[in-house]
């Protein structure tokens, strides 16, 4: 059994309107010290498997097919073995 | 200058329909080994400040006021000093 954490970020150069909105809202609330805000998404999966490499490849496949859009997203996979 | 990463998760017991949908979609795609899927959001802020405790309190304040909903969310703040 593995826990996979997938961090899905927008690629450099892709606009992040949600982050811009957060930044503007924080500045409006008086937090002038905030210079930049970015948002990104994470998915945590629990999945069967014994071989770390196999599990990694499977999760990578899921990212390409469903979880991320390779045109605009970069993603990072972290695996942790659990009982 | 600090980089603050804020991980915003739903509290235990709060339904995560997005995660359920991801789980179902992965199972439909043939990934039967996936037993659970949870999604959560992250915000990355770049903000001025020299004193770590002060910055932490400020970010905690932002979470309470804007970034998270304390009724349904738990959040985790990680600070990293940058130049």
TrEMBL record, chains A, B:
Its EC number is 6.3.5.3. It is an enzyme of class 6 (ligase). It is found in: Cytoplasm. It catalyses: N(2)-formyl-N(1)-(5-phospho-beta-D-ribosyl)glycinamide + L-glutamine + ATP + H2O = 2-formamido-N(1)-(5-O-phospho-beta-D-ribosyl)acetamidine + L-glutamate + ADP + phosphate + H(+). Pathway: Purine metabolism; IMP biosynthesis via de novo pathway; 5-amino-1-(5-phospho-D-ribosyl)imidazole from N(2)-formyl-N(1)-(5-phospho-D-ribosyl)glycinamide: step 1/2. The keyword ATP-binding applies. GO terms for molecular function: ATP binding; phosphoribosylformylglycinamidine synthase activity. Transmembrane segments: none annotated. Gene3D superfamilies: Phosphoribosylformylglycinamidine synthase subunit PurS. Pfam families: PurS (PF02700). One of its GO terms (cellular component) is cytoplasm. Its main location: cytoplasm. GO terms for biological process: 'de novo' IMP biosynthetic process. Keywords: ATP-binding, Cytoplasm, Ligase, Nucleotide-binding, Purine biosynthesis. It comes from the Archaea. Part of the FGAM synthase complex composed of 1 PurL, 1 PurQ and 2 PurS subunits. Part of the phosphoribosylformylglycinamidine synthase complex involved in the purines biosynthetic pathway. Catalyzes the ATP-dependent conversion of formylglycinamide ribonucleotide (FGAR) and glutamine to yield formylglycinamidine ribonucleotide (FGAM) and glutamate. The FGAM synthase complex is composed of three subunits. PurQ produces an ammonia molecule by converting glutamine to glutamate. PurL transfers the ammonia molecule to FGAR to form FGAM in an ATP-dependent manner. This is Phosphoribosylformylglycinamidine synthase subunit PurS.
């Amino acid at each position: 059994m593995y826990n996979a954490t997938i961090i899905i970020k927008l690629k450099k150069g892709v606009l992040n309107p949600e982050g811009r909105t957060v930044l503007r809202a924080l500045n409006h609330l008086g937090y002038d010290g905030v210079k930049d805000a970015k948002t990104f998404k994470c998915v945590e999966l629990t999945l069967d498997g014994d071989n770390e490499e196999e599990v990694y490849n499977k999760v990578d496949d899921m990212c390409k097919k469903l979880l991320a859009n390779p045109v605009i997203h970069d993603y990072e996979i972290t695996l942790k073995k659990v009982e």
